Amino acid sequence: MNSTATLTAKTFDKTFWANLMQTAGILPVLIVIAIIFAIIAPNFLTENNLLNIVRQASINIVLATGMTVVILTGGIDLSVGSVLAVSAVTAM
């Protein structure tokens, strides 16, 4: 293999991973972490554990929804206190 082919292969690898992270975001990393945890702890993917994870993440999901509404309306105010208040009002 000559140096041009090696350079092209390295560039392809970098652009492939950069494009994957740009389009898929952090999802592939989370999938790999979930697989590793499932191998290490067999009870990780049980129904009770997954429900517990979703329950604990629900507060952050509501907060992120409130932040999205604020950003979309043009009021770029990302202070956590006001976002939490907007999220609490929209959740009710």
Polypeptide structure, described:
The chain has 2 domains: 1-43, no CATH class; 46-92, no CATH class. The chain has helices at 3-24, 27-40, 47-72, 80-91. The longest helix is centred in the middle third of the chain and has 26 residues, at 47-72. The N and C termini lie far apart (63 Å). It has 92 residues and is mainly alpha-helical.
Helix-strand layout with pairing:
Blueprint: H1 3-24, H2 27-40, H3 47-72, H4 80-91
List keywords for this structure.
2 domains, flat, 92 residues, single chain, 4 helices, mainly alpha
How much strand? under 5%
**How many separate helices?**
4
Number of strand segments: 0
Mean pLDDT: 79
* H/E element order: HHHH
Categorize the overall geometry: flat
Structural class: mainly alpha
Measured on Cα atoms, how large is the radius of gyration?
Answer: 20 Å
Question: End-to-end span in angstroms?
Answer: 63 Å
Low-confidence stretches: none
Helical fraction: over 70%
Largest sheet: none
Compact overview of the structure:
This protein has 4 helices and no strands. It is an all-alpha fold and 92 residues long.
